[in-house]
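tmp note - Helix-turn-helix domain-containing protein
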Amino acid sequence: MADLLTVDQFAQMLEMHPRTIRRYIRENQLKATKVGGEWRIRKEDAEMFMGSKIDELKSEAMDDIQAFMEGKDSEVEGKLQVCTVLDCYVENLEALKISEIIMRHMNQADPARGKAKFQYFFDEKEKKGRYIIWGTPAFVGKVLSAVGEAVQ
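out:
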């Protein structure tokens, strides 16, 4: 089951509403299989879908980073806020594993997390996973440490 994503997991990775992901499935833009009455998306299919949306995702990510830098529309709360871009030059399966590490931290009930945000995409041409993480310095530091430990 570790190679399958739920609609909610995939939606969170893409910062989309689960209904949007289900619509992509219904419209055959995204391959998925029903398991126990719930849609599951294979990691390979998730990567193919994200690859086809790479330019759109890059543009949205740049807009979000620019808005953060200009102090506009921050979804992160608190006195101290961080936005970081992590590029990992790895194959797509390893990039998905890194994404899973970040998602585990995003989904944990951790007071240091506060309100946080995460975007991920994989650029097949560059063989690069790009992870954009917003949150408190303590939370972002914890996530980056976990990724660093896992990759070494």
